[in-house]
Structures are given as C-alpha cells and as structure tokens.
Fold these 2 entries.
Entry 1:
Amino acid sequence: MTSKPHAQNFPRSGDLLLEQDLIFPPGFWWGTASSAHQTEGDNTNNQWWQFEQQPGAVRQGDRSGLACDGWRNAEQDFDRMAALGLNAHRLSVEWSRIEPRPNEFDHTAIDRYRAMLDALRTRGIRPMVCFHHFTDPLWFYKRGGWEQAESPARFQRFVSKTAAALGDLCDWWLTMNEPLVNVAQGWFQGIWPPQSRNPVRAMRVYRHLLKAHGAAYHAIHAVQPDAEVSYAKAVRLFHGLRPNHPGDRYAAGLRRYLYEHVWFMATVDGKIRPPVGAPDFDPLLADSFDFTAINYYTHYLVRCTPNPLALFGKDLYSADGEYSDYGRNGPYSEYYPQGLAQICREVSAFGKPILITENGLPDRDDDLRPRWLLGHLAALHRAIADGCDVRGYFHWTLVDNFEWSEGWGLRFGLIELDPETQARRLRPSAALYGQIARANGITVDLLTCDGA
Ligand code: BGC
C-alpha cells in the first residue's frame, strides 16, 4: 500500500480553514448509497454470484456470501442512519429476486422491498431506488443479457411492474447505475462478467443500455406521472498527462466523449452518436432525466498508448497526490475534491437539479476519509455558491460491503463490518458525517472541537 502523507498531521480539518460556516440550502438531502448485491447476501440467482464461484474471478477468492445480511436485517442499518441524522438513502432492488424467471414475479420479494422502503420512511429517511446496479438475473444473462436486441424490453417489463408495486412508497428512481462502468469492465477490460474484450459487443451493449434507460424512464412515468427519475452516471475527469501532448489530449478527450458526452447527449436530444449509433434517433431517450445524478470519485491523467482496447491511453494519477487504500495503481484513488465542483459546473448546463449519488473511498483505517468528506463537501458548497443547483449528497457507503472483483479487501464504509460475525463498529467519519448532516453543513465549531 502506498504511504499516505496526510496521515501524520491530520487534525479533523486537514487543510480546510473556515472563517464562517458552510451551510447548505434548506432541505438538502444527506444520505448514503448502497446496492442490493453488495449488501443483501445470498443473491444466488444473478450472474455475479455465478462469477464469484469461478477461481480467480474475485481477489483472494472472496465471495459476496451473506454480504451485510441486509435481506434479513437491513432495518438495523436503517436505525444507524437515523441515529446519524441522515434523511435520505439510495438502495437498489435485485432484479433476480423480483423476476426470478422470465415474466414470473415473486411477491414475497416485492413485499420484502416494501417493508424496507416503509422502514426507511418511518425513520424519516427518503428512499431513492435504483433498478439495475450491475447484476442481471441468470435467465436474462444466459439468453445473451444486454447483447440481445430484446434486452431493453425485458428490462422495461421488470421496471414497470416493480415501479407499480413500490410506487406508493417511493417516487425517486434511478433506472440504472453507471452503465459505462459496466460496459468498460465487462466488455472492454474483461474483468467483470461476461469477461469480454470486444469493442463491437461493447458498443452493442452500450446502445441497448441507452435504449433500456429510455424505455424504463417512460415506464416509470406511465405508472407514476410525478416521479423524479434519472440514471446514476459515473463522471471521471480525464486530462492529458502532458497538457500539450496531442496523443495524451486525444486519449483523454476520447474517454470523455465516449463515457460521458455520447451518453449524456443521447438523454438530452435522443440522438445516439457514433460509434454507439449510426447516428440513430430514439424518441424515448430525448429529455429522459428529471435530475442529473453524478457518481464522482476522482480524476485521471491520461498517457497515450497504441492500444485500442484501452482507448489509446493509460489512466494515471498525479505523482505527488494523496491516495486511498487502492494506492497509485487502483481506480477511484486520488484525493481530488475540486473535480466535484468542476463537474457540477459542467452539468449545470443541462438545467436540471443535481444530486451527488455516490462519493467515497476505500480507507480501512479511516485516516483519509474525514478529510475526504470535508474536502468534497467544501467543494460542493463552493459549486452551490457559484450557482449550481445541487440538492443532495449520498456517501458511498454506510457499511463496508462486497466490492465486486476486489472482494472484501477494500473498505468503503462509514461503519466497519466483520463479514464473518456481522459485527459493526462506527469509524470516526461516521460521527463526523452525522454532525454535518445535523448541522446541514460544515461549521467552524465542527472543525475546532474534537468532534464525535
Ligand atoms: C459503484 C459501486 C462501487 C463503488 C466503489 C461505484 O462505481 O456504483 O457499486 O462499490 O463505485 O468502487
């Protein structure tokens, strides 16, 4: 692991010096984000569970197993959110539980989700529900998953039934999480199922995910006209490593074009741009989001390479940065809070309210997380002061959970979990985040007193 230069001199504030309180707009949403497969446990009927059984698929052979035991006990973590003073929570529903076989819907599973949503609301926590967070039911996956032309219609059927069944308890929805992370990991880099490294298949999946989003957006509004609906979009800032090097600039620009511009613009004007479309026009995609939902972790400095499968570049970090437990070679690592403000300014052009639907870091010993929280929230406050209409922030995540192909090695939780015993222990940043939520901002007092 890379050494962390901040560790020796970290008081709570790091380098954040405040002369006055940074108070957020009234009614700001303070939440945490999670996903079904990473927290529920025993999600045996999806492609990830199957993938985890393959030797070498997940680091150290880890498996999701019982995860955070949320299918049986999510309410106990909802109590912890309420005790911290949080007023929002983002979770996902597991398609393979709700529709375990094609067009067969499991009412016991729906009732369990109804109980969870009700439990959140009873605790004063507004739920936001996401319909797809990387996992596909095995029946869908085995029929070709997102590569099939029928995939958008299959997804739409699931979303429509589920939105109707949960709609009296939730009106805040995400059709899907980070579609481009799914495409990149599963079809470009081949490290997630289906472990493909094929740009043609990747573009087909990209197109189908776009169409699935458009279809789902309208399906939700058809059963709940006043719903607020979007998709959670990962935005990574890419800059050329050598600012004047044309190759580095090209590779950085290509990433932003393909990962962000093509997706965002399709949901603005309905046009699916090359190389994803011919271009094509899908009327269901035009103006298909009610708020802009951003997942932000870090920035990258791109150095050009001749490898088309790597989009002609390698993603690096600043040489003298501060890094999470991923170190210098992992994704999501460098502390770069100003990127969050930059993205808010960029997406303000869409003219929609903005929600930060994920932000966080792996930090087992919690020595960077408090500073990360303060730095990112101060940047967010700056963006709001500059006129960005930001309505809420969801920290990833409340409790350590199953980190996909990284298994249990990386700990993103405000609360530490022992997956064997299910014992939980609050990290110091849990108390800090609770204080911020209760104060609706970062106060000078919070930085000068010893907290907790
Ligand atoms: C994903 C989460 C993941 C987190 C940390 C996000 O991209 O939505 O599922 O756990 O990043 O890697």
Note: Residues 7-235+353-447 form a domain with the TIM Barrel fold (CATH 3.20.20.80).
Entry 2:
Amino acid sequence: MSEQLQQNIAKAEGYLARFKNNTLGHYINGEWTLGSEGNTFDNTTPTDQSFLGKVVQGSEADVNAACDAAAAAAAEWAAMPGAARKKILHKLGDELEKRAEEIAMVESMDCGQPLRFMRQAAIRGAANFRFFADKAPEARNGLSLHQDQHTNYTVRNPIGPVAVITPWNTPFMLSTWKIAPALAAGCTVVHKPAELSPLTAAILAECAEAAGLPKGVWNMVNGFGTVVGKALTEHPAIKAVALVGDSATGKKIQAQTANTLKRLHLELGGKNPVIVFNDADFDRALDAVVFMIYSLNGQRCTSSSRLLIQSGIKDKFLAALKERVANLKVGHSLDPATEVGPLVHTGHYDKVTSYFDIAKQDGATVAVGGKSLRDEMGPGNYVTPTLFVEAANNMRIAQEEIFGPVLTAIEFDTEEQAIELANDTIYGLAGYIWTSNTGCAMRMADKVEAGMLWVNSENNRNLPSPFGGVKMSGIGRDGGDWSFDFYMETKNVCIAHDLHSVPVLGR
Ligand code: NAD
C-alpha cells in the first residue's frame, strides 16, 4: 500500500467516523430526524465491503412530512426576489468548496469512484449552483409576442415543490445538477438520494443549511425507491419529478405519476456509440475511446460503451486499444494512482461480471480482461477493465447497458453502416464521432439518433447547453434555460389594444 493511499485512508476515516457512529436520517423542514419508523439499513463501501454506517429507511409518513414542509415553504421561496435567491445559492457554492476534500473522499468510499475524478465533484457542484444562481434574477422573464390588435407576453412562475431522485454513479454531482436550477427557479425540493450512496447527499443538505436556506425549502429523505421514491412520485403536493436513473425506473415513475399528472424529466440509460473513421486523428481518438468507457468505472450514463471502428484502421486501432486497456491501473478508490476503482455494490458487480460469460456464449472474443479481481484484491468489487472484440451489434453485450468498465468493439465499412449500427439500439443518449472529414461529421451528427453528439471530442460539458436523451434514454432536457423551462410554468397574458370588435351574442 503506497504511503499516499495510507494517508488518504486515514483522512477518509476521519470524515467517515460520524457516519459510522451515528444513524444517518432525513433532513425535513430544517431538522435532522430519524423518521417515523426507525428501521435502518447498513451502508457499506465497495472497496472492501466494510461498514460505513446505518441509514434510516424512510417511510411513507416521512415522505408526507417532507412534502408538507416543501409545500408550506413554497410560496415564500417563490416570492423571494431572484437576487436574494442568487445570494443564498452562491453562499451554498462557497460551502461546497470549503468541504471539497471531504466530499471527494466520502464519495469515493461510498460509491467506489476513483479519487482522481471525485476531486472535482465539489468544484463542479459549486459551479452548478453558481451558474443557476446567476440566472435566478431573470428566471421569470418571458417573451413579448405582438399581434395587430393585441399584445401577448409570457411570464414564468416556479412550478411548486419538486422531487429530485438521483442514482449512485456520481451521486453528488448529479444531485447538484438537478437541485441547483430547481432552487434558482424558486421551487422547493424533496431529494431522494440513491440508497447505495447516501452520504454526500447529507453533506449537501448540511451545506444548504449553512448557506441559510429557509426551513422546508430543501428536504432530503433516505430510503428505497420502492417505498420513498414511490410515495414521493405519488404525492399530490409534488408538481414535477426529475429522475436520473435506469430506464426501467423511468417507466415505473411514468406510471406512478399518472394519477397526479406530474411533469417529468427522465435522464435514463444509454448504450452510446463512439464511431471512429479511418481518417480520424488516431491518437486523440484512442485517448477519448479509453477515457469515455474506463473513467468513472464505466458507471457513467454518457460512457461510450460501443466502439464502432472502420475496417481500414480496425487492426491497428484495436491493437493499440488492447495495450492501453491492459495497462489501466485498477485499485482502491482513494489511491491517487487508481484509474478504475471497485464497482458500486455487490449486486452491480454480479451484473457486470455476468456479461463476461454472456459475451463468450454469444460468440464474441474477450480481448482483454473479463475477470473478477477478488482473488487478487480481496472482497472489494474489483474487475478487470474489459474489451470485447469480434462482436456483432445484435449481441447482448452490444444491446444492454452493462454500466461497468466494459467496451464492445464492432467493425463497419461504410458511413451508412455506421449510422445503421449506431441507431440499432433502444437507447439514444449520446454519441461520439471521430473523423477529419467535416461533411462526414455533419452527416453523422444529423443521422445518429441521440440527444447529444460530440465530434472529435470526449464528453465536454457546457452548462448552458441542453443535456438529455431520446428513445429509452429519456424525456426532456436540462442545462441553461431548458432547466428553468422544466421547473417553471409559462403563463401567457394577452392584452387588447381596445381596437378589435368583441363578438356580440344575445344583445
Ligand atoms: P435506479 O433507476 O435503480 O435508481 C435511481 C433512483 O431511483 C434511486 O434513488 C432509486 O432509489 C430510485 N427509484 C428506484 N425505483 C423507484 C420507483 N419505483 N419510484 C421512484 N424512485 C425509484 O438507477 P441506478 O442503478 O441508481 O443508476 C444507474 C442508472 O442511472 C443507469 O441506467 C444510468 O445510465 C442512469 N444514469 C443516467 C444519467 C443520464 O443523465 N441520462 C446519468 C447518470 C445515470
């Protein structure tokens, strides 16, 4: 064990002690509570399955209390001038930055993401709050739409209390990405963090409290999707649900919210293609292909899990790729040298490793990896970064979201074939195109079915740009003003110039 890893483990132990020694509850109406029933579940770290603390299993009564608090606080928060909300949200950004190291270490231990990527989590979280804070004063602005004898104008009002339901893969960043625009728009929030990674959501609520958010504006209820998530999505006070999660969960939430007719934003799964043409910048494309599936343990919605490689460079590209994949450093998430950490949970580890056999049964070749590392590395959820070749797009490894450090490479000859393969999936979140031919890039960008396409780039993010998917990857967009459109209702006001004749009946 390196000295640096030992130091990091000691530091993380310090940050984690309070979670280990106290049951983590909910944050409702500005108070920490252990809830109505007192049932708990154990939270463990995927680095070695050791205990990280007890977490309260929320009940329907706890959800009701949180929704009541969010409803009671809604009018005052919505009426607060945008400039005042802006100030509080910037203060929240300051609080996150102050606790950046703690957030990074706790997140790494809770969900297994390597520290090298989590170091940015708080900084990116703070940036999310600052970006939407700056937009808060103008959030209500609308359009002026002129007619000959009338003028229409639109204004936006916060939709009301909203539910934010987040997954475990990058829990902290995704929570901030959803909650920041909701608060800036003037909505109150009930947040349900993923049961597999609840810790940084608690730190986030503490930062909100320290920033002076009024009671009831931010509520957080821990527990399971089937109980807490379900009750939250069915609660009549909740006007909109923002989910980041699995496509199956998105479908369930669509059904659960039907009775109360809620607005939904669903950011779901993906099986994103990275398409590398013969004329691509070889080295840059190789770097991006490796980064976009093996960073964040491949537990990333926008990961490029299908490599579509043109036949002219296939052999050379795959040879270079194999070398890079075999060279990836798997290790403890707190080791600064680690590139791929343990998978979040034993259930997810079982799912990912099951594809090693599925690939062989389907006739693909395991070119690199395809192994559990439990014998070598102990009880943590460690697997070898894996590359499947000689694969076809109809195989399960090309169709199903594995959500691990596992890449499936498929050969193509022509641009038309690349489009056909790229679109032959139920998903449509992201796509990546590597070519030096601008016309080809433009044609591909036009034809590939996805909410987001990157040309000659990995997953570069721009906060004002829209983020979201098509097909089974989701409904709706956030980013920039798209977020406000989701968290606000647009109202049209039509004013006559008193020039038109009003239709007369019964005179
Ligand atoms: P998940 O769908 O199992 O869980 C997500 C959240 O939904 C959790 O908080 C869970 O408790 C809750 N939930 C589960 N059932 C529910 C129900 N019936 N009602 C209400 N809430 C319920 O997803 P996960 O396994 O935590 O995360 C991985 C998935 O998230 C992957 O499919 C990944 O692609 C997706 N994801 C998508 C994006 C995106 O932006 N499109 C980003 C990150 C992750």
Note: The CA atoms of residues 275 and 308 lie 5 Å apart.
